[in-house]
Amino acid sequence: MQYYVCFMASDSWSDPPNKAICTTSSNGIRPIVSSLPALWRFMQCLRSFYDERKFRYLVNAVKYFTTFPVIVFATLFSARVSTAFSLEALDVENVDWIIILWGISAFVHALYTFFWDVYCDWGLFQLQHCTLLRPKRLYSWKSFYYVAIVVDLILRFSWTLKLTLALAWHVDSDVIYTALVAGEMFRRFMWNFFRVEYQQTLTP
């Protein structure tokens, strides 16, 4: 969407086309579009809390709010790499406050959303029953649940792969980004099955 809107709205029709105009985040389209889903859900949670006064909605709103610092610091980091120094000059000893704050905010967001997935949306981690699962389950194989927990954890923290490759091997490409997006699509696909299954167990 970022590339399409930028290409249609900017002067990148020259021969040869100026690809740099629409492949960077400096135009502001990517962070704005990336923020919209979380912003809408954040506002929905606040409205639900206002209508029903249930604390759960407020906690859920915080989950979506943790998305915004990640987008802000990731955008600032991308702008710094493209203007101040190249990715090849980036290493562990050369990181600054932007990438540190990006890492902290991404870690908090990943941990918060992982816990929400497993505990709130799937009803697992039932410590009062001394088990990671729950007494009532519709899927007969327990391994389904354990595999789903591990996969969700890995995919929630998949952003660390992108950061590690950038710091250690100076690798940052659309191929990696596409792979991470495909992983996120699979995670959401998997999430649906366990979310519906858990909701079904709550039905009298």
TrEMBL record:
Any one cellular-component term (Gene Ontology): cytoplasm
Chief place where the protein resides: membrane
Keywords: Membrane, Receptor, Transmembrane, Transmembrane helix
Entries under InterPro entries matching the protein: EXS_C
Subcellular location: Membrane
Annotated ranges, domain EXS: 21-204
One Pfam family named in its UniProt record: EXS
Membrane topology, as annotated: Multi-pass membrane protein
Residues passing through the membrane, by range: 57-77, 97-122, 143-161
Domain of life: Eukaryota
PANTHER family, alphabetized: PROTEIN ERD1 HOMOLOG 2, XENOTROPIC AND POLYTROPIC RETROVIRUS RECEPTOR 1-RELATED
Listed name of the protein: Xenotropic and polytropic retrovirus receptor 1 homolog
Higher taxonomy: Eukaryota, Metazoa, Porifera, Demospongiae, Heteroscleromorpha
